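The records we work with from here on pair a chain with its fold. Taken together, the tokens spell out the fold as the letters spell out the chain. The record below shows the convention in full.
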Amino acid sequence: MYRVLLVDDEPLAIEGLQLLIDWKKNGFEVESVCGDGEEAARLIRASKPDLVVTDIRMPSMDGLELIALMRLEGNKQTKFIVMSGYSDFEYARRALQLGVSHYLTKPIMSEEADEVLESLSKAMKEESRKRRTLLYTERYAQRRALSALIRGEELSEAEQAALDRITGGVGGWVYLRVETEEDELDSAIEAIEELDEESGLTGYMTEQDLASFGLVCALQDDSRQAFREAAALLYQQIQGNIGGRLSVAVGSAVKNPAELSTSFRHTMEASMYLFFDRRQQPVYYDEIKELAFGYDSHLWEAAEGIVEAVETNDEQQIVKRLQRIFDHFTNQMTMPALISAFSTHIMVQCSGIYKELGGDADQLIERTGSPLVGAYEHSLLKLHAFLLSFCLMCREELSKLRNRQYGGTIAKVEGYLRQHYRQSITVKEIAEIFFMNPVYLGQAFTRKYGFSIHEFIHGLRMEEAKEQLHTQEISGAALAERLGYCSYQHFLKQFEKKYGMKLAEYKKTIMDLKS
């Protein structure tokens, strides 16, 4: 609704204007009324109404003098409609000179007023549209110019002209990066726009993505105090307008816009520390520039351990190993890009295993999303939670696939062992024959039969040892070799464990039975 101020020294005239004219019909609303030009001037300065309907003939300051004063003071936006009971050409001529395009004669007729308001409403809407277009065009030009400077590029003539229009009176510049929750981004941007209007602090948005945006702030000077005050003000304003997470990284202040690429680079360095430090205040480049990230070349061993725990369906080890490595990241402040590569490696390896078993790896990734591009945009805690969730889900999906595919494979393994138990064979070699992970094979076999593969092999060998001892004369060493034992002592140990007596004692028992 357009806000209206009515000005007339006759109270009955004011009352008539309010009652006889359907203001809302054309989008107007009477906000205030007054009885003379001087009071009207004060109200216009204070509230800047969209439209003033004023009588010409008034004491102290008439309507035309009021309009002339407002234009002289720089108010070009407020529209004026003048009213008079006098058909005086001189008044009309002066009103036209002051930019008044609408004139009402007293007594006011509602039909005439409706026509005037309808015409004025259309004109104001068109002016508003043009202003928005010009404002958008200008902001776009400014954004392009500042973005080019941030990237260290040369400006075109149009971009340079746009930059020149905003550099007057600016003593310093600083680049900031604002990160928040995706659903809070619009509120954060609105807070910046409101801050510009209320505080005089000017911020120009540059790049923007789903949960963050860049901001170039114009400062009174390039002092440390100036850019810290600006950053603190921005942080407070945004924090009061959103309910979720907020992080602000602040680069170095520079004197000239041409140096904004330096401020941008320093901001991006500072923002990487937000990965570890989610403090409730801005993080400044000048506070962290002497710090260094850690680099750990042993991370890939830890990654393989986590992948192995996923592949072998070991939930406890997944949780334990991830917690241990992320604690290490925190203590060493490992480079965020390295943590991103580490996490990506785990996801790729796990997805590859899932694909080998016939699963849809792309669908697996889609179900969890991927926060791994630009890892500094996410907290270490958030990445830990994401990776844990992915690994546990992948573990579960791998288990489902294997249960469907390997239901009869374990039985085949049992048959294979019954045929080859005399050979010296390892679980790893058996797993390779059946295209299975050795750890998973061992676990699946134990779940199905209640004992391990090694226990099963020893059981078969001991049964044959017992049969051989009862049917023929054979030395213990020869029997051990026949059954596939590389160590005679190992054979003796397994025999005693199975039958509760030493081999010599067992042989004596057999001899006693035969005699």
